[in-house]
Amino acid sequence: MRHLGPNWYAVVMGTAIVAGAGAGLPFRVPGLTLVWALSLAMLTVLAAARAAHWRRHRDQARAHLLDPAVAPFYGCMSMAFLAVGIGTLTVGKDLIGEGAAVPLAWALYAIGTATGLVVAVGIPYLMVVRHQVAPGTASPVWLLPVVAPMVSATLGALLVPHLPAGQPREAMLLGSYALFGMSLLAVLVMLPVVFARLVHEGPLPLVLTPALFLVLGPLGQSTTAVNKLADVAPGAVGAPYAGALNAFAVVYGVPVTGFALMWLALAAAMVVRAARSGMPFAMTWWAFTFPVGTCVTGAQGLARHTGLTAFSWLACGLYALLVAAWLVAGVHTVRGLLSGRLLAAPR
User: Fold this and answer.
1) Can you tell me the distance from the alpha carbon of 149 to that of 78, in angstroms, rounded to the nearest whole number?
2) The pTM is what?
3) Residue 204: its pLDDT value, please?
4) Ranges of H-type helices in the chain
5) Among residues 310, 160, 306, which one has the least CA distance to residue 237?
6) pLDDT(133) > 90
7) Is the dihedral of CA 156, 157, 159, 164 positive or negative?
8) Is 139 in a helix, a strand, or coil?
9) Burial per residue of 244-254, b for 16 or more beta-carbon CB atoms within 10 angstroms, e otherwise
10) Which of 87, 103, 293, 312 sits CB 3.0–4.6 Å from 36 for a disulfide?
11) Stretch 153-167: mean pLDDT
12) What pLDDT is recorded for position 198?
């Protein structure tokens, strides 16, 4: 357990998004409740293992936190709790009932949001004052700590109807928009640095190439968030604002989805290039799952608000890609665990 890092939360995220994204498709996908239950079980086991890691291997845990290549993955911890929380309200309620699903979602929201806010501030702070970041080493992994509040905004939208009408709902809605803005502006600061590194330093190392898919995360998640928030706005704020927020969901979401598709093509081309050069399996392959899943849910939201079946078809195509990526990454991860390679000391 000594080398169990925070990057393992990506497995939970990738599994939870398969269940959550599948619930919004125009056809029924069998087994989603089982996938959600699997993600909840994974989260429980991993959270316990990480707590034990901090107790028994505190020196290694601190080393992870002070390593600029590992510390950003603490953003995955927050997003794992939140992704399972989203799945709880969209899929899990069919298995455990709404009476149990809502309190569980609130608990996951509280943990995920609190840790996400700490990470969104703490990791950039460490990058500035403690980490020794060499020039030209910017990576899409840097986006992970600042994307977590965007996932909180999405789960917050789902929880709005479960609050009393009036100020509680309005506060939750506007607070979620504040989390959306916090994350979006931080991402806009980070993205130019990441792209500049690619242009000036060339492609990422082979093992890190799948991380290019992480850029899809804030794009798809922000589109998902504004559409989910627009869905619940009429029950939380007055008509002028509710109408404006519905319009904003489309005006914002469509251009961002266009950019996401462009980046998907670019990242896929880079991955094909790396695969031809012998790209080995690593935990970075889980970057093929959750970010693509957020684009699925973003397309679903746009389909609801525009009525265009093209967005429904886009969601279906991206979901097929998500499931294929989840199966491939999952099989390789199980093999790596059974062989002990994935938990061995880094070379």
Assistant:
1) 9
2) 0.95
3) 93
4) 9-22, 32-56, 58-65, 74-87, 93-96, 98-129, 144-159, 167-201, 216-232, 239-276, 290-306, 309-339
5) 160
6) no
7) positive
8) coil
9) ebbebbbebbe
10) 87
11) 96
12) 92
